[in-house]
What does this fold into?
Amino acid sequence: MKQILVLFLLFLGAIPGAPLLAEQPERATAKTLERIEISGDGHGFQTAESKTPFLPWGLNYGHDGRLIEDFWNDDWETVANDFDRMKQIGADVVRVHLQSGKFMTAPDAPNRTAFTNLSKLLHFAEKTGLYLDLTGLACYRPADTPAWYDALDEAGRWNAQANFWSAVADTCAASPAVFCYDLINEPIVPGEKRVAGQWRSGKLFGGYDFVQFIALDPAGRHREDIAVTWIQRMTAAIHTHDKSHLVTVGLLPWSRQWHHLSGFVPERIAPELDFISVHLYPDSKLPGEALEALQKCAVGKPIVIEETFPLSCTPAELETFLTASRKTATGWMMHFDGETPEELDVQAHAHPLSLQKAVYRDALRLFEHLGSQFPH
It folds into this structure.
């Protein structure tokens, strides 16, 4: 099953970093952000004070296939320039992925340097006028996952995960720049007992593993019940410090072959979440399946397509899907890896773009085009 960010990083891993623009425009201070809440009709989003409709139109953030935590200690200028670039092409939300091993030095000990950087990012997002989708508990790069974390049993791991979210919420509660807390990327509840310590899928793509199990042994429990209990535990940890910002989970999609393989069934988990997030990549060989999967998420809460990209379809087919999805979805996020279409156009004048870069440019052009068409 495709993992959005994994395949995206693999797909673009060879892209060199974009040079900084020769003349950077002065960064304008954005108008004061308002916290985002669910709209009064329950079908979308709005600003908390002025009640202005808000449409998430965002980008999953990386740079040269790297996560933000790989370079924000020593190269903040790259973060700053990339946020300018994303805003320039029309984004209003940036999805940032935070790895557990970078933010916790022990089950109950936050990494103060990482949380200082997170605070810095919040202030910068407020100034830039971009909201943050903070996706946590990532274990994408096995080398970044401490041995102590994988050695924990289910109860210990859930405790450590709750401590992570408690620390994140404590840091972020006062910031209006938080669009949402995404509890975890593409979680799975196993159907049978797994080997001790095997919390990830074990399928590496370019050194990354984007699927994570939240339990190792169902032990007679229903998979759907485990998912609900886990969400309740994480949400309770967040609400200890922050009862205002929205909470969601980045779901693997339903498929015709596997149905709800993850055990996170939208109608079961919806009461525990503020909105549904799903990752959908249309496949040319499976026409209509992405829209069918989207409909499986229509359970009475707003829906955000948190990841999409023309990985297995053409940009034109993706446009058709996204346009049709407007009947059901209320937010969309594609991918950004450090270069804008305009910067790639400059490269194309010097030499033909690789197929990968050409597809990436076309996708971001589609992002710009639809951003001017979709109301937000």
